[in-house]
């Protein structure tokens, strides 16, 4: 691991606005915060004050915007640059839209790069959607003077908020990519902050700065990294997205160390989660497979069993773990789920009062899998929150509150994000 220059004391009172924080940027930021409040994603408190103050164009003076259609290959990207006056309006709109913001292409150096179009490749670092980030930062419960470990630096937004609320002396931001940490170090310093900026594997944490009262992981893991649990201080809390190879049904792991040193953890079924790190093998439904599901024939049965509601998040979370390999097409008009590894799929369409046509194809009976888990989930009390157990042999499992529904958490790959 490599460590940045020694951190300097800072706090909310030392926040410095750059000369680049124009009236347009201030207005865009205020509008973004107002939308978050209106949507219920943000309430009064220090996170709100930090987001109102944070000049996002200082942390992200360049950002990518996709110019190609969603399924067009290779994808085409333009890099907007604050230094070019003609880009500023579009860049401000992008930074304050609430959507995720891509800041790095194929692991490139971020500082001093030319703002030229890119084709192909992948975006390897980004700032997450603001609604999710704001909600998680509020749940994290940041307070002045806390020691905070920000795992997965990205654009440095979480680190900046932690410095604003807690003071930068106890803040560590950690990323596997030296280009990401170098950019965050330089841009946070423009805001007057000197958190410890560390390059290394986020799943092992950084023991030298701990123990931490708060740990925030901004990429998905398959199970809770033990190294991060060990660095959690008594009274501390850690948050991270926990998922499988499917992006469709994430869980939020909330880990807390009690005053006596014991650890309690929950897995909460949520609508949105952080994306997986670069190199995390992920499933997806290709355009060709989606077209096949929409147009191809299959075996159709009439069912009086209703498909589980989208709001039955605990059921979908359990399905993802008990019958892995499924991906939902959320853009389809009907409930549509595919298993890309074996080309199985299912489509459910309402055809009358309490009647549905269920069309399936392939070796897996996805409808039967769904109904199996739905029945077990209801028998377990229809929970949306499960307990995470850390067993003596190092394995982890999730269970319903009444222990009627349980599954193992796969160790899989849990490396750092870009």
Number of strands: 21
Fraction of residues in β-strands: 25-35%
Total helical elements: 11
Which residue ranges are poorly predicted, with pLDDT under 50 across at least 5 consecutive positions? 1-19, 413-418
User: Which structural class is indicated by helix and strand composition?
Assistant: alpha+beta
At the fold tier of CATH, the topology name of the domain at 287-379 is: TATA-Binding Protein
Main beta sheet = 11 strands, mixed
From the spread of the alpha carbons, the general shape counts as globular
The CATH class of the domain at 287-379 is Alpha Beta
Helix content: 25-40%
N- to C-terminal separation?
16 Å
Report the radius of gyration as a whole number of Å: 22 Å
Lateral strand order in the biggest sheet? 1-9-8-7-10-11-12-13-19-20-21
CATH architecture of the domain at 287-379: 2-Layer Sandwich
Mean pLDDT: 92
Key descriptive features of the protein:
21 strands; 27% strand; 26% helix; globular; alpha+beta; TATA-Binding Protein; 11-stranded mixed beta sheet; 418 residues
């Amino acid at each position: 691991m490599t460590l940045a220059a020694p951190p300097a004391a800072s706090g909310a009172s030392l926040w410095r606005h750059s000369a680049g924080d124009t009236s347009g940027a201030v207005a865009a930021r205020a509008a973004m915060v107002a939308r978050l409040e209106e949507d219920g994603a943000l309430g009064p408190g220090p996170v709100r004050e930090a987001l109102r103050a944070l000049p996002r164009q200082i942390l992200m003076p360049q950002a990518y915007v996709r110019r190609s259609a969603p399924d067009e290959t290779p994808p085409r990207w333009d890099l907007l640059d604050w230094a070019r006056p003609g880009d500023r309006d579009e860049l401000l709109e992008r930074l304050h839209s609430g959507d995720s913001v891509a800041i790095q292409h194929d692991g490139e150096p971020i500082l001093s790069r030319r703002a030229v179009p890119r084709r192909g490749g992948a975006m390897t670092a980004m700032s997450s959607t603001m609604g999710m980030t704001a909600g998680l930062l509020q749940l994290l419960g940041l307070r002045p003077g806390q020691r905070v470990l920000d795992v997965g630096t990205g654009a440095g937004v979480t680190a900046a908020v932690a410095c604003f609320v807690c003071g930068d002396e106890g803040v560590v931001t950690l990323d596997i990519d030296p280009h990401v940490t170098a950019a965050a170090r330089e841009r946070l310093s423009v805001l007057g902050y000197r958190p410890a900026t560390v390059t290394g594997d986020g799943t092992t944490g950084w023991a030298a700065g701990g123990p931490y009262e708060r740990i925030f992981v901004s990429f998905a893991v398959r199970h809770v990294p033990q190294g991060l649990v060990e660095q959690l201080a008594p009274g501390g809390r850690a948050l991270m997205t926990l998922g499988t190879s499917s992006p469709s049904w994430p869980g939020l792991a909330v880990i807390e160390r009690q005053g006596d040193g014991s650890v309690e953890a929950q897995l909460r079924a949520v609508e949105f989660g952080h994306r997986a790190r670069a190199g995390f093998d992920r499933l997806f439904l290709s355009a060709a497979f989606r077209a096949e599901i929409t147009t191809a024939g299959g075996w159709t049965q009439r069912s009086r069993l209703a498909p589980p509601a989208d709001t039955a998040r605990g059921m979908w979370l359990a399905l993802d773990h008990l019958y892995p390999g499924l991906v939902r097409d959320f853009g389809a008009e009907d409930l549509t789920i595919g298993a890309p590894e074996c080309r199985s799929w299912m489509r459910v369409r309402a055809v009358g009062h309490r009647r549905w046509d269920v069309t399936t194809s392939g070796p897996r009976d996805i409808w039967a899998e769904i109904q199996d888990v739905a029945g077990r989930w209801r028998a377990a009390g229809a929970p949306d929150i499960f307990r995470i157990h850390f067993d003596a042999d190092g394995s982890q499992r999730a269970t319903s509150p009444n222990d009627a529904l349980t599954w193992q958490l796969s160790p899989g790959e849990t490396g750092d994000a870009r």
